[in-house]
Amino acid sequence: MSGFFPRRSTLLATAIVAAGLGAIGFASISLGAVIVGETRRIDLGQKAAPGMDAMKTQYKRPATIPFPKENPYTPEKAALGKQLYFDTRLSVSMAQSCASCHSPGFGWGDGLAVGVGHGMAKLGRHSPTIVNAAWGEIFMWDGRLATLEEQALGPIQAPGEMNMPLEQLMSRLTSIAEYKPLFAAAFPGEGMSAKTLAKAIATYERTVVSERAPFDAWIEGNEKAISEEAKRGFAVFNGKGLCSACHEGWNFTNDGFQDIGLPSKDIGRGEFVPGVIKMQHAFKTPGLREIERRSPYMHDGSLATLEAVVEHYDHGGVDRPSRSDLMKPLGLTAQEKSDLVTFMKTLTSNLSPTAVPVLPR
Amino acid sequence: MHKTILFALVILSGLSAGALAANQVIHQQGRVFSSESVTIKKGGALTFVNDDSIPHNVMSATKGSEFNLGSQAPGMSTDVTFKETGDVQVICAIHPRMKMMVKVTD
Ligand SMILES: [Cu+2]
Questions:
Q1: Is the domain of A180 the same as that of A226?
Q2: pLDDT of residue B21
Q3: A130 and A242 share a domain?
Q4: For chain A, N or C: smaller number of CB within 10 Å?
Q5: Model-level pTM?
């Protein structure tokens, strides 16, 4: 009851502020259809930190790959998609394929700090892995593409990357006789188009899934599958290190955008959400599967080793308004840092080699 | 001047009504909005509670209904009043899986 009266006086203050703002520009500030009230603290009660077993339940591998109902899996589509993925003729120079930058040899990345595009020119950001893209919610470091189908066409057309206009691409592929029956089998009644090409590549990419790693065996109950150091590292990952606040679940990402305080000038997600402070310098949280094979690290490839990455997080990075509130000095001990790295290495699977397909002529 | 005062009173009464009525509460625990879609009356408010363990950034980019709560720390609660009818898509800027629709009716 008594709680109402202090509230009311702050509301009055809010109204006065609103009226005051009117003098300097109502149209943009107060005449909107939505009014944000003041923020207050509430009591959430004390939550006990979850134990090891509770943490482990969050990391079980899914049993099946999710395919969208607009583009369901068929073996014909995946096989065609694989050929297109490895076909250098998708670039205007006929020298680059999707696999040039997203290569199975480098954990489906390219092992470089930043990608290399058309004319061997360096790109602005590190080539992300395509491992477990089937579970992605949004694509590119800055989240500018909504589906893997759209993503597949992005680098093909980008002038700095494969530099290939779609019309020119389709006419080139049409002139390769063996592609026609493959498209016909994968897309009965639809045939060859940029749309079906994107669907085929996306379907193949969804089949690229990190295989079982020692970590998975441990999650499923084999206590000997990973070392005691790695288990301690897992506890730091979920606790003091705050890593799992973003790198969560079996693929170690919630696809969220965070400014982690790297000194790079690139504003990332901020380009698409200019009014939101926390999106400036924010990039999509990458998953951590096969992370040991994916160096160098971060959106700009600026950190060479997992040890350097852990040091960065322990330090907290550049303190600026956009920096995530989760980034702060952690005070990790040398043992905790080393345990974290040992843990991350248990996410490396025994990847079987990927056979390069014979391409249509 | 007279107009400004009148406007302030309108805002005041609108906010008071929103504050005194029991708002529908939208929780964010587990990086998910507790409702995918809610219907509220024009002039009504929703209370966005961050009962999760990490910060969220509730906002809308729906034309005419743009708002941005900024980084909302765990344990914080903010009321948002919707004054025009229509559908407002509410998202978390940080977590792309967090989406909900607010249907504002007469
Ligand atoms: Cu969120």
A1: no
A2: 55
A3: no
A4: N
A5: 0.87
